[in-house]
Specification:
heterodimer; A: 2 strands; B: alpha+beta
Chain lengths: 56, 329
């Protein structure tokens, strides 16, 4: 996972940290079982009513 | 005003933070302080007009990097300390509506990377002994801003619940030579009735000793102390299982289930806690679709939880909730 962060100071002195990610690198080093889990769950990304599936 | 007051009977710190009485309370959807600042719009907590994930220091913190002097003087009996520490807000998304359950596992994986970075950065502060990452979700839990977010408290002491778990873990290690939570996980896997879901690296279960009806814990199969111990693959695996549990919660009764989600991991005070074991705990406040579990007299006054349900039955119910899962031999 490629993550970058930018730290800024707000006018009142509080810190704020912006994180950004390489959108295409997150599945690097992904184990097979986790990849299968993700594929099964893509159906539920917006509806929270996922396709029937079995996780082992 | 903000300070730490010692509770001599319970031997734990109480944080007073009177300025939090003024914090933002259910602002209208079009005036959310956690949304990005739009061109010509009112300034929010995030000056940029877009972001992926953001953390920032809470405007109404219980703990501060430069704390004010205590409002009163302490005594030998009534000890007092400045409320040093950090309180951060973690924004999951620039979109005002939605929940963590609706994020993809890839998005949740990114959040886990942010949690890891904050654990390392805040834990490195010399006045921080423990980095506590958590999410309060839903008005039933007392959430006053609906924009999807979590929080981080960097305490100047080890919180009492963690301290108790550390002591029990050390006692078990000294007695058996093994990790307590490794043994608990082995017993749960052997029994199987309380398992909810699992994958290559993590197991989700309602433990034998659950205090809330739908109290799911997520544990790594391997002995890990804290977030930085996980590989990218393990973080991705954790994200997948978190997603499964969150979706099950929302499908349980057809509404977005409120919960407290807390991460228990090794303190950051520089001492060795190899006897401890990372885990995540969920405390949903509902015991049925219509009834809340209250922390009443026994729970609040005596510290004795009364669970009206059996963990074995609730785990089976969650396994049958979409996405369905089953116990593997």
């Amino acid at each position: 996972m490629s993550m970058t962060k930018r730290i800024e100071t707000k006018p009142d002195g509080r810190l704020i940290v912006y994180y950004s990610f390489n959108r295409h690198s997150s599945k690097t080093d992904c184990p097979k079982s986790a990849e299968q889990t993700i594929q099964g769950q893509r159906h539920s990304d917006t509806s929270t009513k996922p396709e029937r599936k079995r996780i082992v | 005003m903000s300070e730490l007051r010692w509770h001599p009977l319970l031997e734990q710190w109480v944080i007073t933070a009177t300025h939090r009485q003024e914090r933002t309370f259910f602002p209208p959807d079009d005036y959310c302080p956690l949304c990005p600042t739009k061109d010509g719009g009112f300034p929010t907590e995030v000056p940029e007009d877009d972001y992926e994930l953001v953390t920032f220091e809470n405007k109404f913190p219980s703990l501060q990097r430069v704390p004010p002097a205590p409002a009163v003087e302490g005594t030998d009996l009534y000890r007092i300390r400045p409320a040093a520490g950090v309180c951060e807000v973690v924004l999951y998304s620039p979109e005002h509506m939605g929940t963590l359950a609706e994020k993809s596992a890839e998005d949740i994986s990114r959040l886990i990377h942010v949690w890891t970075d904050r654990y390392l950065e805040l834990g490195a502060l010399d006045y921080v002994d423990y980095v506590f990452i958590f999410e309060n979700k839903g008005k039933e839990i007392g959430v006053t801003l609906t924009h999807p977010h979590g929080q981080i408290y960097a305490y100047p002491f080890i919180p009492p619940v963690i301290e108790k778990e550390l002591a029990a873990s050390l006692k078990h290690k000294n007695k058996t030579g093994r990790c307590l939570l490794c043994d608990i996980l082995a017993e749960e896997l052997k029994d199987g009735r309380r398992l909810v879901a699992q994958n290559e690296h993590f197991v989700a279960l309602i433990p034998f000793y659950a205090r809330y009806p739908y109290e799911v814990h997520i544990l790594p199969r391997e002995h890990r102390l804290s977030l930085p111990d996980f590989s990218d693959g393990e973080k991705f695996s954790l994200a997948g299982l978190l997603k499964t549990i969150l979706v099950k919660y929302d499908n349980l009764w057809g509404f977005s289930l409120p919960y407290m989600m807390v991460i228990h991991q090794s303190p950051t005070n520089g001492e060795d806690y190899c006897h401890y074991h990372f885990h995540i705990e969920f405390y949903p406040p509902y015991r049925t679709a219509e009834k809340l579990k209250y922390l009443a007299g026994s729970e609040s006054g005596a510290g004795v939880f009364i669970n009206d349900t059996l963990a074995e039955e609730k785990a089976a119910e969650l396994r049958e909730t979409e996405p369905k899962t089953r116990v593997e031999d």
